[in-house]
């Protein structure tokens, strides 16, 4: 009995392997892009809040000035005011309003407004807060 040699076609195997691996690879890349973008936006929002609370601690600066600064800086980052869920600048202790007393700022942004892919599950909102003591003369 003679064995017939059959020709193998490695191109077909490569095509099947690519069809199995490529969707997973694309999903990993898209997921990395989406979460990387969200981490970048989270860090930008945190920096805005830190700058605002630092500004609010200066003498002769009111909370409304700090809130205006938050909205201006978020606008420069491409985050419109409609995406802001919450923006707060206030004293930690409601009876405090003197030099050395702590004040805080907090901002929450709708995550869908800053997400670029919306392919994977993401948090509902991105929130940042900071606390500092009021400076004085």
Keywords:
137 residues; alpha+beta; Pantoate--beta-alanine Ligase, Chain: A,domain 2; three-stranded antiparallel beta sheet; 3 helices; 3 strands; 19% strand; rod-shaped
Which residues sit in consecutive blocks of at least 5 with pLDDT less than 50?
none
Radius of gyration equals 26 Å
Q: Tally the structural domains.
A: 1
Roughly how many Å apart are the termini? Answer: 104 Å
CATH architecture group name: 2-Layer Sandwich
User: What composes the largest sheet?
Assistant: 3 strands, antiparallel
What fraction of the residues are assigned to beta strands by DSSP? Answer: 15-25%
Query: Count the helices. How many?
Result: 3
The gist of it:
The chain is an alpha+beta fold and 137 residues long.
Give a written overview of the molecule.
By secondary structure, the chain is of the alpha+beta class. The chain has one domain: Pantoate--beta-alanine Ligase, Chain: A,domain 2. Helix content is 47%, strand content 19%. It has a three-stranded antiparallel beta sheet with strand order 1-2-3. The protein is rod-shaped and about 100 Å long. The mean pLDDT is 87.
